[in-house]
Amino acid sequence: MDKKSALYQLMCLRMNGIVNYTTEQDEEYQTLLRDVDRHTARLEATQLPRETIQLVAQYISGYNAAGPLLA
């Protein structure tokens, strides 16, 4: 399907609306977001070099992508 077509763009808008509504209603997800925000603020408050913060972020992303394999 052509990504510039009106139908495709309407489908994307609808799907984004559904995903946004679902995540807004999910209390566990909202709690997770608050925790992430709190930890992010603490990490930024350490005033580590930007490269170090990016390295930590990459590690966390890789760890989360691997899921239970690293736990």
Helix and strand composition category: mainly alpha
Low-confidence stretches: none
Task: Indicate the proportion of strand residues.
Answer: under 5%
Instruction: State the end-to-end CA separation.
Output: 40 Å
Instruction: Please bin the fraction of helical residues.
Output: over 70%
Compute the average pLDDT. 85
Shape: elongated
Query: Helical segment tally?
Result: 3
Helix and strand element order: HHH
The strand count comes to 0
Question: Can you lay out the helices and strands and say which pair or pack?
Answer:
Elements: H1 6-25, H2 27-45, H3 50-66
Provide structural commentary:
There is one protein chain. By secondary structure, this protein is an all-alpha fold. It contains three helices and no strands. It has helices spanning 6-25, 27-45, 50-66. The longest helix has 20 residues, at 6-25.
Task: Give a quick precis of the structure.
This protein is mainly α. Helices cover 79% and strands 0% of the residues.
Keywords:
3 helices, single chain, mainly alpha, 71 residues
